[in-house]
C-alpha cells in the first residue's frame, strides 16, 4: 500500500516532468490509480449526472481513442480524460526512458490507430529497467 501511495503522489507531483525515469512498479501503480479514479468518476457521472456527450460528434471526435470504446460519456468523464492526460503521458515517457526507448513511443497510445499501437507499446512498458 505504501508503494501505491508513493507512486500515486510521484505521478502527480512529476506530472510536468518528461525527463528521467519511472520504475515499472511506479508506472503500473499510477495506471492502477488512473483506472480506479476513472471508475469512481464514471460511476458518479452515470449515477448523478444526466447529461451525456457523444464523443464522435465533437470536432475531430472520430480520432479520440476512447470514443471507439465508449462513445457516449458524461460531462465528468469528458473532463477527467484531458485532466489525467498530462500525468499519464509524463509517467509513460519516463517509463519508456527507463527501458531505453524514446519517450516519443508514447504517441502509440493514440496514433496511428488507437488500440493497435497499444499492442506494441504494452510489452515495452512491461520490460525490466535498463541499467
UniProtKB/TrEMBL annotation:
Keyword Membrane among record annotations: yes
InterPro entries the record matches: DUF805
Residues that span the membrane, as ranges: 27-44, 102-121
Keywords (A to Z) from UniProt: Membrane, Transmembrane, Transmembrane helix
Pfam family, one: DUF805
Keyword Cell division: no
PANTHER family assigned: INNER MEMBRANE PROTEIN YHAH-RELATED, INNER MEMBRANE PROTEIN-RELATED-RELATED
Name of the molecule in the record: DUF805 domain-containing protein
Organism: Candidatus Paraluminiphilus aquimaris
Amino acid at each position: 500500500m505504501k508503494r501505491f501511495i508513493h507512486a500515486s503522489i510521484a505521478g502527480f507531483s512529476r506530472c510536468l516532468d518528461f525527463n528521467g525515469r519511472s520504475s515499472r512498479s511506479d508506472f503500473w501503480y499510477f495506471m492502477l490509480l488512473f483506472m480506479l479514479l476513472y471508475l469512481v468518476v464514471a460511476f458518479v457521472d452515470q449515477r448523478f449526472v444526466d447529461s451525456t456527450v457523444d464523443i464522435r460528434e465533437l470536432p475531430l471526435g472520430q480520432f479520440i481513442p476512447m470514443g471507439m470504446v465508449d462513445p457516449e460519456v458524461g460531462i465528468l468523464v469528458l473532463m477527467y480524460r484531458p485532466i489525467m492526460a498530462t500525468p499519464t503521458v509524463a509517467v509513460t515517457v519516463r517509463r519508456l526512458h527507463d527501458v531505453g526507448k524514446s519517450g516519443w513511443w508514447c504517441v502509440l497510445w493514440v496514433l496511428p490507430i488507437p488500440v493497435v499501437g497499444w499492442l506494441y507499446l504494452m510489452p515495452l512498458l512491461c520490460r525490466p529497467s535498463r541499467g
